[in-house]
Amino acid sequence: MAIERTLSIVKPSSVSDNHIGAIVAKFEAAGLRVVAAKMLKLTPEQAGNFYDVHRARPFFQELVDFMTSGPIFVQVLEGENAIAKNREVMGATDPAKATAGTIRAEFGKNISENAVHGSDAPDTAHTEIGFFFATSELCAR
Ligand code: CMP
């Protein structure tokens, strides 16, 4: 199996609810390792650029408003099949449809405030990691 890296965002609602540690613990329990992490508050322009693929969707403004409503915790996770594993641990986009025990089932409130974001494929993982981190900030483990 391939060792991959993927981007994970703990969204503003999870940060304000003090769930950063509980969420990171779920990734670590699944065998993923944190190789970079930081907290920041996105500007509307940054959030819009990050979610550019959704710009034409009806929920775009709601998404930008939510993602800029408070600080986020961004991390790069590394491990075997990290991209798929991250998505498995997160659960379905809509917390109401997420499997019990997943992060979104446990900490998500609705499809907008769904606790976490994770890259969905190798190309987006590469782009999304580069959006937040310089190569020099990724720590080999
Ligand atoms: P995320 O994994 O961050 O990627 C895009 C986000 O858009 C998604 O999680 C949801 O939070 C949000 N999203 C997707 N579909 C909808 C929707 N129908 N209504 C509101 N937000 C949505």
Q: Helix coverage percent of residues?
A: 25-40%
CA-to-CA gap between the ends? 17 Å
Neighbour order of strands in the largest sheet: 2-3-1-4
Q: Name the shape in a single word.
A: globular
What's the multimeric state?
A: single chain
If helices are DSSP runs of H or I spanning 4 or more residues, what is the number of helices?
Answer: 7
The number of E-state strands comes to 4
Strand residues, percent = 15-25%
Q: What structural category characterises the helix and strand content? A: alpha+beta
Average pLDDT metric: 97
In angstroms, what is the radius of gyration? 14 Å
One letter per element, helices H and strands E, the order comes to EHHEHHEHHEH
Main sheet attributes: strand count, strand direction, barrel closure = 4 strands, antiparallel
Low-confidence stretches: none
Listed once per kind, the bound small molecules are: adenosine-3',5'-cyclic-monophosphate
Walk me through the structure.
The protein has 141 residues and is of the alpha+beta class. It contains seven helices and four strands, in the order βααβααβααβα. It has helices at residues 12-16, 20-29, 44-50, 60-67, 82-90, 103-107, 122-132; strands at 3-10, 33-40, 72-80, 116-118. A four-stranded antiparallel sheet has the order 2-3-1-4. The longest helix has 11 residues, at 122-132. It is globular. The structure holds adenosine-3',5'-cyclic-monophosphate. Adenosine-3',5'-cyclic-monophosphate is lined by residues 54, 59, 62-63, 93, 111-112, 114, 117.
